[in-house]
Design goal:
With 671 residues, the protein is of the alpha+beta class. It is built from 13 helices and 35 strands. Helix 2 crosses helix 13 and helix 8 runs antiparallel to helix 9. The mean pLDDT is 96.
Length: 671
């Protein structure tokens, strides 16, 4: 079974992540360890003092790449109830490994002597072996020639320390003999070298952090934590280190994912055009060129994921480069358009026009595999993802009675993405003086077909079905998928209003964000990966859509729910959490195997900021629009230093949502 993550301490700096118990110990079970580039290098790092483990009393995560763990050394020091000797373990994760300081502190009347030991081991287990929850991998023997290190193929991990080291087969024991009067600091580091890794830390790009103040300090805490996490997730191809993208999430998806990386860049556009451009170019270089059922590749199609090697887990066998996604191609087009609107230089946009044309070739033709006028997916390999939308678990597409839809499947939100991609591409091409023949007409025809075939009436109301199944029957469960249609232009005003009202109802938005499936559906479970849980990015996408559709109050309320939920996770929004509502629990419960941090979950906080400001930007037209919800869901709000069009945007809102101060970059005007 997949190991659990919800109670682990996690620190990271791409492509390295360290997962430990909240006492700081790495015990070699579950997912605990130092992972680098989809390999677990350190599988055990246990500290003892005279053979005793410190008794943990707390830990903190002051930054994305840091952790501090405090434990009492109770067998040392003065007699009496008050602890007088303790150990603080300061961890700093780097792109190439980890460095720790073991700080022993004493307030005892007399000096104490002790032996501190750190036991290390490495198994170099690949991520899919860890995720499958199978038997532990054998330990890798230690090499001592030229230093203490482990080797497996081209990957090495080297240990340095100010203590003494002994080696016993696969184990390294670092020992310090300490005389402690006040404070002693002991050090060790591990440095990894991985010349075969496809991805490296990005160079020269760090996400900026605008200054944000709000009456509701929960929001600023969420935003600051999210920006630090998103920055720590940035990766790049080894051959193109300046083209950064966001690795999808630690630890399971700490690599390039088409859909995830695109949504993360799109939601975070107000922070970084460099992230958007790097993501677009990285995926363009891997764009499909031929038909290959084994990998899902097709001409013009955008990649689903890329790893250092094939990925085999839970009955799936995915190749190193896998194209099994129905939505990434349209999302790539939408990101290109949105990045242009936010100010991506025209030269960078024009460089990608051949890729845009190729993507449109797939969208308007190859995506419809059976000629029914809709984009659908079917795993031709028999070893890939059965479902290829963002809800890609095997049971994600269910009818209202709980039965599972049979493929090929045409998802509702994918038709909206396809429509938006065609319309936005036509806008972009026309603005650049390029031909856009037939795109608007193709999109209009898709919109008409969707209205005829997808809308259903059930006890929950009148709304678009989740999908059409292989028999072209509407999959009639009420889900969050339809919220992705908001703001795309795919719906008319009445349809948008109806969907907004349904999604803000108690069966969908129960206090902590948007459920993936209505609690009235037969397949609903609050602990289902895709059928009842809450995904922060999904909620944020719908918040964004409500904002674009002019439903400010609903966008504000759903965003406020997500801010409220974040506190239960120390403001580090996970990949997903359980779908229990506020009537069931006082705070949201975790989904225990959820990635944390997750790129699109972290980027969700940026979308909340944009929504709470009511901000829209069109740099080519020179226009900025501010239409905040009234009242503000986070009280008075002040933002300074938000990078935009070569300058910065500063804005202040009162608690009732009134703009009282605004400074625009040169060349932009208020719309």
């Amino acid at each position: 079974m997949q190991p659990l993550l919800h109670d682990l301490a996690i620190a990271l700096r791409a492509p390295t992540v360290v997962l430990s118990g909240r006492d700081g110990q790495i015990r070699g079970n579950g997912t605990q360890g130092l992972l680098h580039g989809d390999l677990r290098l350190v599988s055990e790092a246990v500290v003892t003092v005279d053979g005793h483990e410190p008794a943990p009393i707390g830990f903190e995560e002051p930054a994305a790449d840091r952790g501090t763990f405090t434990g009492l050394v109770r067998h040392l020091g003065d007699p009496g109830p008050d602890p007088t000797v303790w150990l603080r373990r300061h961890r700093r994760v780097t792109a190439s490994g980890v460095a720790e300081e073991l700080e022993l502190v004493s307030s005892a009347a007399d000096a104490v002597e002790c032996v501190v030991e750190l036991a290390l081991a490495a198994d170099f287990a690949p991520i899919e072996v860890i995720k499958s929850g199978g038997e532990a991998s054998p330990l890798v023997p230690v090499r001592v020639d030229g230093g203490v290190r482990w080797e497996s193929g081209p990957v090495t991990a080297v240990v340095t320390t100010d203590g003494g080291t002994t080696v016993d087969g696969a184990a390294v024991l670092i020992r310090w003999r300490v005389r402690l009067e006040d404070q002693v600091v002991l050090q060790w580091t591990l440095t990894a070298e991985d010349p075969a890794a496809p991805f490296v830390p990005g160079t020269g790009v760090r996400l900026p952090s605008p200054s944000v103040e709000a009456d509701d300090r929960r929001f600023t805490a969420l935003l600051n934590r999210s920006l630090a996490d998103l920055d720590a997730l940035l990766l790049a191809e080894r051959e193109h280190p300046a083209d950064v993208f966001a690795g999808a999430g630690a630890p399971w998806f700490f690599t390039l994912f088409g859909r995830d990386s695109l949504w993360a860049a799109r939601l975070a556009l107000p922070l970084s055009l460099e992230l958007a451009g790097g993501t677009l170019r990285t995926l363009a270089r891997a764009q499909g060129e031929r038909h290959d059922p084994a990998t899902g590749e097709a001409p013009g199609k955008i990649l689903h994921e890329r790893r250092r090697a094939g990925f085999e887990v839970h009955g799936m066998s995915l190749p190193e480069r896998y194209y099994g996604t129905i939505d990434a191609t349209a999302l790539w087009v939408c990101l290109l358009h949105d990045a242009w609107r936010w100010g991506l230089p025209e030269a960078e946009v024009r460089e990608l026009l051949p890729n845009l044309r190729a993507a449109l070739f797939w969208i308007t033709g190859l995506a419809d595999t059976d000629g029914d006028g809709f984009a659908e997916y079917l795993d031709e390999s028999g070893r890939g993802l059965a479902n290829q939308g963002w809800k890609d678990s095997g049971d994600a597409v269910r009818f209202a009675d709980g039965s599972i839809a049979k493929p090929p499947v045409a998802l509702a939100e994918v038709q909206g993405y396809q429509y938006e991609a065609a319309v936005r591409a036509a806008e972009l091409l026309s603005a650049l003086g390029e031909p856009a023949d037939g795109l608007a007409e193709w999109a209009s025809a898709l919109r008409s077909r969707f209205r005829e075939r997808f809308w259903v009436s059930t006890a929950d109301g009148h709304f678009p079905a989740l999908a059409l199944d292989g028999g072209k029957q509407p999959v009639d469960s009420l889900t969050s998928n339809i919220g992705h249609l908001l703001g795309t232009g795919f719906l008319d005003e009445a349809e948008s209003d109806s969907i907004g009202a349904l999604l803000l109802g108690p069966s969908m938005a129960a206090g902590f964000g948007l459920r993936t499936m209505s609690s009235t559906a037969g397949g609903f479970s609050p602990l289902s990966y895709h059928c009842g849980s809450v995904w922060p990015h999904d909620t944020a996408v719908v918040v964004r859509g409500l904002h674009l559709a002019g439903q400010r109050a609903r966008a504000a309320e759903l965003g406020r729910q997500l801010v409220h939920a974040a506190g239960a996770f120390d403001n580090r929004l996970p990949e997903l959490f359980s779908g229990y509502g506020a009537a069931d629990v006082t705070e949201p419960l975790p989904y225990p195997a959820s990635c944390r941090p997750q790129a699109w979950a972290a980027a969700s906080a940026v979308t909340l900021l944009v929504t709470f400001l009511g901000l829209r930007v069109d740099v080519p037209a020179g226009v900025v629009t501010l239409d905040p919800p009234r009242p503000s869901p986070v009280g008075a709000l002040r933002v300074t230093g938000l990078r935009l069009a070569g300058g910065t945007l500063d804005v202040t809102l009162t608690a009732d949502g009134t703009v009282t101060d605004l400074r625009l970059p040169p060349g932009l005007r208020l719309g």
